Amino acid sequence: MMSGIRGKDTKPELMIRKALHARGYRYRLHSPAIPGKPDLFLRRYRAAVFVHGCFWHGHDCHLFKMPSTRTAFWQHKIDRNRARDAEVETALRDQGWRRLVIWECALKGKTRLEFGALMDRLCEWLATGRETGEITGNIV
Q: What class of enzyme is it (predicted)?
């Protein structure tokens, strides 16, 4: 089951890449030279962009529900992912990279943002120079 879960080139990631390219932004993908191998990184903006699945990273939203079977396994796995996310954030900051997380709930489900608005927020974040950011779905 888990072998079928994609770590790269997911549908949300491809949507964002296509839209960013259409807006004139150029980026690299999954570079092992950047901590955490971000889904996208824009060297010109010193920005690393991650597209996180709400389940896999334990986001507090309607898309995350702890499975009722093998709960201890899943809790441990999600806790490790969260700890790794925190380590990556620290490493990026220490190396002078900015970090943005786009959560899955911003792209799908009942709280999703209109895609153009999501892309506007992403481009605004790139332009402002803020160190960190998150794009989540609308709060219901």
A: hydrolase
Q: Which amino acid, residue 100?
A: L
For residues 32 and 110, what is the distance between their CA atoms, to the nearest angstrom?
34
**Token pair of 57 as six digits:** 């990273």
- φ, ψ (nearest 5 deg) of residue 48: -110, 130
Q: What is the largest CA-CA distance in the chain?
A: 45
Q: What is the CATH number of domain 2-135?
A: 3.40.960.10
Q: Which amino acid is at 11?
A: K
Give every CB contact of residue 113 below 8 A, 6+ residues apart in sequence.
106, 107, 121, 135, 137, 138
Phi/psi of residue 74, nearest 5 degrees: -65, -40
Measured at the CA of 106, the angle between CA 41 and CA 89, to 5 degrees, comes to 40
Q: At what angle do helices 11-22 and 115-128 cross, to 10 degrees?
A: 60
